[in-house]
Design a protein that fits this description.
By secondary structure, the chain is of the alpha/beta class. It has 2 domains: about 100 residues, no CATH class; about 120 residues, Hexapeptide repeat proteins (UDP N-Acetylglucosamine Acyltransferase, domain 1, 3 Solenoid), CATH 2.160.10. The strands form 4 sheets. The protein has a 6-stranded mixed sheet with strand order 3-6-11-14-17-18. It has 5 helices and 18 strands. It holds the Pfam family Hexapep. This is Acyltransferase.
Length: about 230
C-alpha cells in the first residue's frame, strides 16, 4: 500500500494539531497542582501523555468514523478515495497507540480500551491477545481471546488491501496464538483451538470446535460444555 504526499501532509497536520491540543489541555489541568511545584514537571509530562494518547487513540478515530463509518472495502495501491484516506488515518492512529500498548495493558482493561477504539464488545469479554482494526470487530458476550491471539480485519494481497468485518458470537473461545482473518464469522459457543488459523471469509457454525492451519471442523461441542 502506497502513501501519497497528501497522506503524509494530513498525517503531519493531525499529529501537530493533537500535540497542540494536548499541550493546551495539559496547561489548563496542571494549574490545579500549583501547590506541588516540586513535582509539577512530572505531573505535566504524565498529563500530556494521557491526553495525547486519548486524543490520538480514542477521539481521533471516533471523529473519522463519524464522517466515514467502517465497512467492508477493497483498496488498491493507487486508491485516492475518501474511504481509503480515512482508513490510512485510522491505521496511523492505531500504530501509535494500540500497537505500542496492546500487550502492556492488563487483560481486564483491554476490552474497555478496544471498545473505546470502536470495537463492539459484549459483557464479560476477556481479551488477552490483540485486535487489529477494532472498528471492524464484534465480540459477543462472555467470549474469550487467548494469550497472543490475533483478530486481524485487514489483509494485504499484492497491491490491494482487503478490509472485512470479523464477527464473533457469544461464549466463543479463541485459543492462544490463534489467528482470525478478515470476513470470519464464528457462531455461539464455538471454540478455535490454540495456534489455529481461520482463513478469510470462513464461516464457523455455532457449537463446533475448529483447529489446524487452515482451521477445519474437528468435532461438535455441547453448548453447555466448559470451554478449555
Amino acid at each position: 500500500m502506497k502513501f501519497s504526499a497528501i497522506d503524509v501532509l494530513i498525517t503531519c497536520v493531525c499529529l501537530i494539531s493533537i500535540i497542540f491540543c494536548s499541550t493546551i489541555i495539559t496547561i489548563i489541568f496542571s494549574s490545579v497542582f500549583r501547590s506541588s511545584d516540586e513535582y509539577l514537571p512530572i505531573i505535566k509530562m504524565i498529563l500530556f501523555l494521557v491526553f495525547f494518547f486519548l486524543l490520538l487513540g480514542g477521539i481521533y478515530p471516533r471523529v473519522l468514523r463519524l464522517f466515514c463509518p467502517a465497512k467492508d472495502s477493497i483498496f488498491s495501491s493507487e486508491d485516492s478515495t475518501i474511504e481509503c484516506l480515512f482508513w490510512k488515518q485510522t491505521v496511523f492512529s492505531y500504530e501509535l497507540t494500540v500497537s505500542i500498548f496492546a500487550y502492556i495493558i492488563p487483560v481486564l482493561l483491554r476490552a474497555p480500551v478496544y471498545r473505546l477504539l470502536g470495537a463492539r464488545i459484549g459483557k464479560g469479554v476477556l481479551i488477552a491477545g490483540k485486535i487489529v482494526e477494532p472498528q471492524m470487530v464484534t465480540l459477543g458476550n462472555y467470549s474469550l481471546c487467548g494469550e497472543m491471539s490475533l483478530l486481524m480485519a485487514h489483509a494485504i494481497m499484492g497491491d490491494k488491501v482487503v478490509l472485512k468485518k470479523i464477527t464473533i458470537g457469544d461464549n466463543v473461545s479463541v485459543g492462544a496464538h490463534a489467528i482470525i482473518m478478515p470476513g470470519v464469522a464464528i457462531g455461539d459457543n464455538s471454540i478455535i483451538a490454540t495456534g489455529s488459523l481461520v482463513p478469510m471469509d470462513t464461516i464457523v457454525p455455532a457449537n463446533e470446535i475448529w483447529r489446524g492451519i487452515p482451521a477445519k471442523k474437528w468435532k461438535s461441542v455441547d453448548p453447555f460444555d466448559v470451554k478449555s
